[in-house]
Amino acid sequence: MTAFTYDMVVVGSGPGGYVAAARAASVGLKTAIVEKDSFLGGTCLHRGCIPTKALLHAADVLTELKSAAKMGVMTEGVRVEWDKVQKHKAQIVKANAGGVSHIMKKNKVDVYQGFGKLNGGGQVIVQHDDGQTSQLITRNVILAVGSTPRELPFAKYDGKTIMSSDHILNVEKIPGSLAIIGGGVIGIEFASLFARLGTQVTVLEMLPQILGPADREASDLLAKELKKEGVDIKTEVRVSNVASNGTSATVTFSDNAGASHNLNADIVLVAAGRPALTNGIGLETTQAKLDQRGFIEVDGMMQSEEPGIYAIGDCVNTPWLAHIASAEGVIAAEHAAGLTPAALNYDHTPSCVYCEPPVAWSGLTEAQAKEQGYNVKVGKFNFSHNAKAMILGKKVGFVKFVTDADFGEILGVHIIGPNATDLLAEPAYAMQMETTIEDVATAVHAHPTTYEAIYEAAAIAAGRPIHG
To answer: Are 195 and 230 in contact (CB under 8 A)?
Structure first.
């Protein structure tokens, strides 16, 4: 076994891990990163955010082309060649993986390919694929080990008819029919993707609404639009079994009245959450603790009960989002270097769903704000009154501010419609800076733009409506 000494060792090279490693190195810590896969980038880059959005963009382009005739642009003979869509996706992933490698080289971060395991508070043992091991002696460790798709006991993956989100990213052909267990972000994005490619899609969700954390108005409007695209959404159902015959699968589920139903589909996608990958990483050799759901317990600086051991991203009980993992990685790296970063305010987490129409939100829903006792005032502006949305032919949706009527505090913002995931930036930043709704309503917004809808909704909430 070969031994090496570091100030910081990061285990996992996803958007939390590689950002943490780059930041640690940039503030003067001798840093190494350990990755069990043969490539850097983690789940987000190779099995999550990036490849999913690449496929979704192909569906977006197809949607635009199908609606082009309304604007006088004729597009006869449009077709989807799935193998080329997959090739485009692979090229994007490869380019981004190369970018991560470049960042590590630029910051002089040593890369170890292999499985990293804690051996007490000050060591990480790396088991390489060739059977060799490396001992990394370190003052600090950041665990960025991520998560994996949850396999249900009655729906074991076969990778052919019963799939996880990992499997379906590389499906060889567009399925004729698809049943999705779970109406959260992952399930809804794949529903929107394949429905627009011609697949008969059914979503089975146990909650009363899809996108449970979203504002109910946005969720209901999205469900309405997905149904127009041919998605059959069944809420308040419980799946009890999935059986495969080798070429298709049958889902057995019960509705809220207790009646049992069977649904046959070419592919069943299980999108029912992601447990943390904390097993087998040596936590038992440290004082670090797991909560009841298997997440590593950390404080605001992302430090565990074991001094010098930090955890970030999907392996801690914070929002499962790449940008949250990256922000947590910066906090952990800076704290380990003796700096004084501010803890994250998770109430201001920006959440985005890249379906059609896209949905984005930050802060409290209207219902949550009322439950917490605020004197709520809502400002809502529909994109059907926005000139740029009309030009784009995307008039469905709205911007909705949830505010405190007494002090003008922005409690939450909810957007569904064109460019929603980008439009979220301004109000999310306003919330972080504790800007009032009046400040947003008096800022000049360019015309004609979709982000004028931010101003219009803010003006309504501030009591000075123009077009609303």
So the answer is: yes
Backbone angles phi, psi at 369, to 5 degrees: -65, -40
Fold matches, 2-148+275-336 and 357-461? no
To the question of domain 162-270 being in CATH 3.90.1310.10, the answer is no
Under CATH, domain 2-148+275-336 is a member of which superfamily? Answer: FAD/NAD(P)-binding domain (3.50.50.60)
Confidence check: pLDDT of 1 > 80: no
* Cα–Cα distance for residue pair 310/324, rounded to 1 Å: 15
**CATH superfamily label, 357-461:** FAD/NAD-linked reductase, C-terminal dimerisation domain (3.30.390.30)
- CA angle in degrees (0–180, nearest 5) for 185-416-387: 150
Cα separation, 344 vs 331, in Å, equals 8
Query: Rounded to an integer, what distance in angstroms lies between the CA atom of residue 252 and that of residue 198?
Result: 24
| Catalytic hit among 323, 335, 447, 467 | 447
Mean of pLDDT over the chain:
97
Task: Tell me the per-residue pLDDT of 392-447, one tens digit each, with 9 for 90 and over.
Answer: 999 999 999 999 999 999 999 999 999 999 999 999 999 999 999 999 999 999 99
Amino acid identity of 261?
Answer: H
Where in the chain are the domains?
Answer: 2-148+275-336, 162-270, 357-461
- Work out the angle between the directed axes of helices 425-432 and 452-461 (0-180°, nearest 10): 50
Three-class secondary structure of residue 252 per DSSP: strand
d(CA 265, CA 247): 9
For residue 454 the two structure tokens come to 């931010």
Provide the b/e sequence for 411-439 (b: ≥16 CB within 10 Å). bbbbbbbbbbbebbebbbebbeeebbbbe
Active site residue 102: no
**Scanning the structure block, which residue is given the tokens 């922000």?**
327
